[in-house]
User: Fold this.
Amino acid sequence: MNLPFSLYRLQTIDTQRQKITRRLTQIEAILNADEFVKAKLQQKQLAAEELAGKQSQTNKIAAETSEKRLKLELNQVQLFGGKVRNPKELQDLQAESEALKRTIQKLEDAHFQALMEQEDAQKKLAEAEQAHQSAVNAKATENSLLAGERGNLTVEMDNLNAQREALIQTLPAEIVSQYESLLKTKGGKAVSAIEDDCCEACGVELSPRDMQAVRSPNTLLRCKTCGRILYKA
Ligand SMILES: [Zn+2]
Assistant:
């Protein structure tokens, strides 16, 4: 058995497992995040409130206009009905008639303005509704893609776990525990390959003597700088 090679294999498997674990955590977070959809929903609700406000404003002006029109009708009956003959009273009625007509004109202008604002608010609500629906749809698509990816990664992880288990069976328990503790203290990388006579993990150059020693299949050489187990392909 080539011990450094087996440990290097073990490291390769563990590196893949670490990568999958990171991605699975990431996927879980994205699946649970719905801030964007929530924000779009809130915008939709605000637009609906805005529209309701505009509608009530329009209705209020319309009601006020009806009231003034009714008053004007009564005024006209009195003014032209022939029952009121006193010139002072007739003059007052005439003044009231003119004032009411001016008020009604103002209210009609305001009503027109309010209707335009209402139409604008309606358009904004329609846009907000569409934006919210798009966000919901995009989220659903994203979630289903991520759920698929999560399924594939879980299968891959199961395979790696089985490979790891089988590989560990072939190694001395003491070596495995040495490897495991290095894995913990060295940021998930216990075994470092040698590339161009250098430790790949920390970059230090190895002495010719270490380069000789590392070729032996039965001894484990540790990097003098970072402490990782060295492996030469
Ligand atoms: Zn090193």
Notes: The beta strands are 191-195, 198-199, 229-231. DSSP finds five helices and three strands in the chain. The pocket of zinc ion is lined by residues 192, 199, 201-202, 204, 223, 225-226, 228 (CB under 6 Å). The first helix runs from residue 3 to 32.
